[in-house]
Amino acid sequence: MELETLARFSKGSSSKSGFVSKLKRIFLGSVRVRTSVAATAVVGVALAVSSMVLIGVLSDQLKANLIANAKNEATSTADLIRSGELANPIPLPSGDLAAQVLDGSGRVLASTSNVTGKGPFVGISFIKSKLTQEIVSISNWTIQPAGDTDNGALLIIHKVQGGSKANINIDSTYTSLVNAQSSAGLSKVTPVPLENGHTPNLYVAVIASLASVDQPIKFLIPALTIGGLMLLVIVGFATFYLTGRAFRPVDQMISDAKDITGTSLHRRVFEPEGDDEISRLALTMNRMLERLEESAESSRRFVADASHELKSPISALQTSLEVSLLRPKEADWPKVALDGLTEAHRMQTLVEDLLILAKADAGRLKLKFEPVDLDELVIEEARRARSRTESKIRLSSVSGGRVLGESEKLRSVVRNLMENAIRHCESTVSVALKQEGSSVVFEVLDDGPGVPEADRETIFRRFVRLDESRSRGDGGSGLGLAITKSIVEAHLGRIWVEGNNQTGRGARFVVVLPAADPSFTSQPLEITP
Fold first, then answer.
1. What local confidence, expressed as pLDDT, does residue 168 receive?
2. CB-hemisphere CA count at 13 Å for 179?
3. Which of 46, 318, 469, 522 shows a CA-CA span of 20 to 30 A to 28?
4. Alpha-carbon distances, residue 180 vs 314, 397, 412 (angstroms)
């Protein structure tokens, strides 16, 4: 029973962990989700910053307007004092502003109606100590009519210097308002007490409640918060939806790619219309599949051709041995051994050629770059070829030429091209070598049938023989030119074939290699036949 309970618990735990893993895979492994989250986060940060800037600017502007109004009222009250028309109550707008006029002992001479009967806002000693400050902040000040019990306030202090009583020009509208309120009994003009015929120093204190600043901000913050959250939700869902639409072709491409195997490389992934990144990705993948298909097909052909080429000498050797063993006394064993050695040598050559091509495909055809006199290799191979053919080999156009590379590999290039030319010529093979600037140009020309223009790229492929040279009786495997091209390219050179423009017929193989000394000037060589 305990084991059953433990098994059930383990199963439940594993299913729960599997569900969590699935959620993690969905939300952390999905580009669509990550993009939506990132877009929402960016917009959220932008909204937060812009909201704080907006609140700060609005608060500063409201506070600046409030301070300006308080300063204006303090100045107007001071002007009334100087003109001897101090009204009580002081005719200031009620609400966020309140004012008191105090004498030097701190006694309230006049005040606005919203603080009538109240004591001084602050002590006279505090006022005198703050005269050097234009604005004084007061915390938790209460202006009862405004119901301001939780906001701070600003105190504007204006000192009216005492002196001889003198009327000054003040705002006529304001004076008329004071006189009208006084006549209606709403206020009365309080004469400023004189001391020795002079007015004493008086102090105007104007309280500006920050309620008009704080209340809009208090309403604005929730509004911005709610609006911002709604916008974030919209941005998140919109990004998720639009990203999903954008990634539909990718999902189709993934589905198509899953069905492509080594035996179905002919298939292609879906290509959406347009010229955006996804369509270019699909186009790139299809081109890659084309190259993979060509490479796989080339590998299959290579294996089939290599097997076929290896099968011929093996079959010949096996047949020769089986026939000789049937009649051992009549067999010419020295000849059988010689034929077997010939076929074995042919197989060895073919395997070595295949190994060179395999290394070239894998990028492992490593060379030792040393100065090589290419003209010496040409002359040596030409003398060797003359001893094995009746065709004429002309070296009159051979000049000095030094390149950087591996001597034996370059010798193989020279030998393959000469043997190819001798195999196809009618009577004459011409060899040319010269240095042109920073390159050494090596040419082999024959007067044979030439290479059709349509086949001039094909002949450098592996196991390719044109119709005129399909017989294996001469020992050709169809790998010579492919190996030659691989070696030339490994030496940072180029090779191509064109028509023989000297005789009007035949082929002209051209090899261009970087020169070891670009400043060297070629001179015709005196070659002993």
1. 37
2. 8
3. 46
4. 133, 126, 123
Q: What residues have CB less than 8 Å from 104, skipping those under 6 apart?
A: 124, 200, 201, 202, 203
Q: Of 63-72, 77-86, 150-159, where does the model show the most confidence?
A: 63-72
Residue 410 CA to residue 529 CA, distance in Å, equals 22
- In the chain, where the domains are located: 80-212, 277-361, 370-514
How does DSSP classify residue 394? E
Decide if domain 277-361 falls under CATH 1.10.10.10: no
Token digits of residue 209: 């409640």
Q: Looking at this protein, which amino acid is placed at residue 470?
A: R
Pairing relation of β-strands 439-446 and 198-199?
A: unpaired
pLDDT tens per residue, range 143-202:
444 344 556 788 888 888 765 443 333 444 555 555 555 555 555 555 555 555 556 788
Assess contact for 292 and 264: CB atoms under 8 A.
Answer: no
C-alpha distances (whole Å) from 140 to each of 62, 118, 165, 450 are 19, 16, 38, 107
User: For residue 229, which of 33, 32, 37, 48 has the smallest C-alpha distance?
Assistant: 48
Residue 135 near residue 67 (C-beta atoms within 8 A): yes
User: Distance (Å, rounded) from C-alpha 300 to C-alpha 286?
Assistant: 21
Query: Residue 456: its pLDDT value, please?
Result: 87
Let me know: does 96 contact 146? Beta carbons within 8 Å. yes
CA dihedral 286, 292, 298, 303 (to 10 degrees): -150
Single-letter code of the amino acid located at 419 = E
Beta strand pairing status for 87-88 and 198-199? unpaired
Query: What's the pLDDT at 346?
Result: 72
